[in-house]
């Protein structure tokens, strides 16, 4: 292998190794009876999508799990794919066509769909290329698209089964309608935003009376569709109106006055207008009281003839303005109040949603929800963190039927057919050519498509060729874990569980790992409008993929949201550089062409300690990964590699590498260090695949180290290092821990007391016999690591000595001769006075009631923390000053 460059450049490593992995088909999976499968279904990104930090986080977690289990001997399948994203994709293509002045209607359905496919082939693979930049290792050869032929068949099979089982029905119901997208959307696709609006109080005259009713509304244009006015049956104020009728302002339509328990007598005037075609609660009331439903606008949000000739053709908001003006002119507008309320908006295009009476297809969800509830309450499916189980169960308990039809052209066409000759309607998995009842070829398919999530809820098994129960399906399904954000627990996670149980009779996975969401450093959602988004590709360019992966996994603790800034990736880059420098140091040491020994003739304390620490690290990592505490697992590897191995072990073996007269000691020490480092690289590989592959390849190219290498020769297909529990030695770790703590104490004293780095310190120790014996036997380590000249046991603190306490051990460093005591006393006196003044000022602020009452809470908290920090520093300075007397 070529010599390592002085510094780590991810650009020279990442492309090279990803190309190597793909060319050698190292991500490929197969049905292997000799291995246990481990399967994760990648949440399919939209075909319109670009990689964002949310993908980066979830992919880093999923790929870490896949690579870990691959190295653990599992047949680890990470199933990739893309979602056709009905509304989103259709909107993108429509906008693209609009740039050339073309509407989809100009092309017709078939030609428009051809254009969508053209766009998909040209732009749809961008996110897959970006995922490769991150180091993702799915089986790309198995990649599926939700509009693939096999998945189309699965969707039609699923629809047909639900339909035949009586769980799909069609009816006129109020749906969430997006006038911009021209389609119904599900409750979960509606974003509710607090909006500043108005509450208009309108007079409704009572027929044949001078009396009028006052009704308040936030949507005055919908009153044109009113077919009733309602009061609560217990409301004494309106009992005299039973059997009477009100008159709809402007239109003049007579409205029955009805009484219904839905009406809250405490809200407003205790009266509500009833508009069955434009409000779900009014629709239910209308059905209870046999009120007609009058649709006063069309699918574009434009007023229809039912709204009256004065408003025909107006946009809904223009109509609102004109109608309010008309009410005012006719003296029927009593008052207008400012009113803040929650208004639904289309998640895709942000248009205000219109509750709209429409004939749609629905799935009955209650029968599907019950088994899905049991799967979690019985413990078969677990959520990590567990708190998300409550959210899941709450939604399923209150679940409503799912509107699955969409008035779009792009998507899975509903497999319902109608014969124009005999009026027969039927469902069919295959595309029929003739009516099964009369044989006519004059048949039409339902024009609507299915909600995008209808294909997505089949993802865990449709991607494995269900309904065909082939070898791959039987081997890889059910899957193991689903990794996703909490934002799609309802959209996708719960529905997949329902679908898995209903269509296959099996839980689709045993664990749902919920990640937090990525926010900016101020805790705000990232968005284009705020300009606070962080592009993962930009971060990969700047810091490297391993740095991005490392930082995201470390920050992903217990499903908490992550406050992210670009500088957070520096810790990952620094770790990659540390790994590189450690490898470079070891590889630059003089070594034989072929090692003849794998360890030194006699293991020193540091050797036995690092071997024990390695096993402890590996044992802990396994425990953490099994509990999905990936952040903890990675930090354990980091701590071992950076602190135990690089900061301590490598430094401690330098005298043997540089100064030992025994070649066997030099060779054995280097061999042991390389072997331990190789194990650490394998442990780290799932999290940081690129740099570990590069360094591992360098190390295993050395002959005679005795490292077991499997084919193919890539770190990802090597065995994950297993803890050898017999090498875990608690006593050795305790001995070394004492030495490390004493070294740390001496180093702190040297730094605080400004002892010159070149000066040797004579140390005095007061300790129980056992601890003294350990320190005495390892004096060489103290001498090397803390620049100690001599070490003597004492019974009391010497004069003018700095001190520190390490458990039962007291460490003293006499300062006379090391520093100028008078100069240091003067410096400390000055520092004590400065900190005392600062502390007095902060205390004064905090005792000022005006400051406490007027300052923002975070400012007050900051000042309190400042006080605590100053007090701690002042105590330490006074102790240091006392040590000099």
Task: Indicate how many domains the architecture comprises.
Answer: 6
Shape: globular
* Estimated share of beta-strand residues: 15-25%
CATH topology of the largest domain: Rossmann fold
Question: Low-confidence spans: pLDDT under 50, at least 5 residues?
Answer: none
Q: Quote the distance from N terminus to C terminus.
A: 60 Å
- Tell me the CATH architecture of the largest domain: 3-Layer(aba) Sandwich
- Work out the number of β strands: 29
Structural class: alpha/beta
Can you give the helix content as a percent range? Answer: 40-55%
At the first level of CATH, what is the class of the largest domain?
A: Alpha Beta
Strand order of the largest sheet: 6-5-14-16
């Amino acid at each position: 292998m070529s010599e390592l460059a002085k510094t780590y450049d991810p650009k020279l490593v990442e492309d090279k190794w990803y190309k190597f992995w793909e060319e050698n088909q190292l991500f490929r999976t197969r049905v292997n009876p000799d291995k246990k499968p481990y399967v994760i279904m990648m949440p399919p990104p939209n075909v319109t999508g670009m990689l964002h930090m949310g993908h980066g986080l979830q992919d880093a977690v999923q790929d870490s799990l896949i690579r870990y289990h691959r190295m653990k001997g599992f047949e680890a399948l990470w199933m990739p794919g893309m979602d056709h994203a009905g509304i989103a994709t259709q909107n993108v293509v429509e906008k693209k066509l609009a740039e050339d002045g073309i509407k989809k209607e100009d092309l017709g359905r078939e030609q428009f769909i051809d254009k969508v496919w053209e766009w998909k082939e040209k732009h749809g693979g961008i996110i897959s290329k970006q995922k490769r930049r991150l180091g993702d290792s799915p089986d790309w050869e198995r990649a599926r698209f939700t509009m693939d032929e096999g998945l189309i068949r699965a969707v039609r099979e699923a629809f047909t089964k639900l339909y035949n089982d009586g769980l799909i029905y069609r009816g006129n119901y109020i749906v969430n309608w997006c006038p911009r997208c021209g389609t119904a959307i599900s409750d979960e696709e509606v974003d509710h935003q607090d909006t500043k609006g108005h509450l208009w109080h309108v007079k409704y005259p009572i027929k044949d009376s001078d009396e009028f009713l006052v009704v308040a509304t936030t949507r005055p244009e919908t009153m044109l569709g009113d077919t009733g006015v309602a009061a609560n049956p217990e409301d004494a104020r309106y009992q005299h109106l039973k059997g009477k009728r009100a008159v709809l302002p402007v239109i003049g339509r007579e409205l029955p006055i009805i009484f219904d328990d839905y009406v809250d007598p405490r809200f407003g005037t205790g009266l509500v207008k009833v508009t069955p075609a434009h409000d779900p609660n009014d629709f239910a009331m209308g059905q209870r009281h046999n009120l007609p439903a009058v649709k006063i606008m069309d699918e574009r949000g434009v007023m229809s003839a039912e709204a009256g000739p004065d408003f025909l053709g107006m946009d809904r908001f223009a109509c609102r303005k004109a109608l309010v003006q008309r009410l005012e002119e006719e003296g029927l507008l009593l008052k207008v109040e400012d009113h803040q309320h929650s208004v639904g908006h289309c998640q895709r295009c942000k248009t205000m949603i219109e509750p709209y009476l429409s004939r749609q297809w629905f799935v009955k969800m209650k029968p599907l929800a019950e088994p899905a509830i049991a799967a979690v309450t019985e413990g078969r499916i677990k959520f990590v963190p567990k708190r998300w189980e409550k959210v899941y169960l709450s939604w399923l308990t209150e679940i409503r039927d799912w509107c699955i039809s969409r008035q779009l052209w792009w998507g899975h066409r509903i497999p319902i057919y109608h014969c124009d000759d005999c009026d027969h309607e039927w469902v069919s998995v295959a595309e029929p050519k003739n009516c099964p009842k009369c044989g006519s070829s004059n048949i039409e398919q339902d024009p609507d498509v299915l909600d995008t999530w209808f294909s997505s809820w089949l993802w865990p098994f449709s991607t494995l060729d269900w309904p065909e129960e082939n070898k791959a399906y039987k081997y890889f399904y059910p899957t193991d874990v689903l990794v996703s954000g909490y934002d799609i627990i309802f959209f996708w996670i719960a529905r997949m569980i329902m679908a898995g149980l209903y269509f296959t009779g099996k839980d689709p996975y045993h664990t749902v790992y919920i990640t937090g969401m990525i926010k900016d450093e101020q805790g705000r959602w990232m968005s284009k409008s705020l300009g606070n988004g962080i592009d993962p590709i930009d971060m990969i360019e700047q810091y490297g993929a391993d740095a991005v992966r490392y930082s995201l996994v470390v920050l992903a603790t217990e499903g908490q949201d992550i406050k992210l800034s670009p500088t957070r990736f520096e810790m990952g880059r620094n770790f990659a550089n540390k790994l590189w420098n450690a490898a470079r140091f070891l590889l630059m040491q003089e070594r034989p062409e072929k090692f003849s020994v794998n360890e030194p003739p006699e293991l020193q304390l540091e050797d036995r300690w690092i071997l024990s620490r390695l096993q402890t690290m590996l044992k802990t990592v396994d425990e953490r990964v099994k509990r999905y505490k990936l952040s903890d697992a990675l930090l354990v590897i980091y701590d071992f590699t950076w602190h135990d191995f690089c900061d301590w072990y490598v430094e401690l073996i330098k005298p043997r590498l540089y100064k030992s007269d025994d070649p066997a000691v030099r060779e054995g020490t280097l061999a042991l260090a390389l072997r331990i480092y190789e194990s650490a690289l394998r442990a780290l590989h799932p999290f940081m695949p690129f740099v570990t592959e590069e360094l591992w390849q360098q190390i295993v190219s050395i002959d005679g180290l005795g490292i077991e290498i499997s084919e193919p020769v890539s770190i990802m297909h090597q065995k994950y290092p297993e803890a050898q529990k017999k090498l875990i030695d608690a006593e050795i770790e305790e001995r070394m821990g004492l030495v490390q703590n004493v070294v740390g104490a001496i180093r702190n004293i040297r730094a605080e007391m400004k002892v010159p780095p070149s000066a040797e310190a004579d140390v005095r120790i007061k300790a129980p016999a056992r601890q003294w014996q350990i320190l005495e036997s390892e004096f060489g380590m103290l001498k090397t690591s803390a620049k100690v000249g001599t070490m003597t046991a004492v019974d009391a603190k010497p004069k003018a000595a700095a001190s520190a306490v390490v458990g039962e051990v007291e460490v003293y460093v006499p300062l006379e001769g090391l520093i100028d005591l008078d100069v240091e006393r003067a410096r400390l006196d000055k520092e004590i006075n400065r900190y005392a003044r600062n502390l007095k000022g902060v205390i004064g602020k905090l005792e000022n009631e005006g400051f406490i009452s007027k300052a923002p809470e975070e400012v007050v908290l900051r000042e309190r923390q400042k006080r605590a920090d100053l007090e701690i520093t002042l105590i330490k300075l006074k102790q240091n000053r006392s040590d000099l007397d």
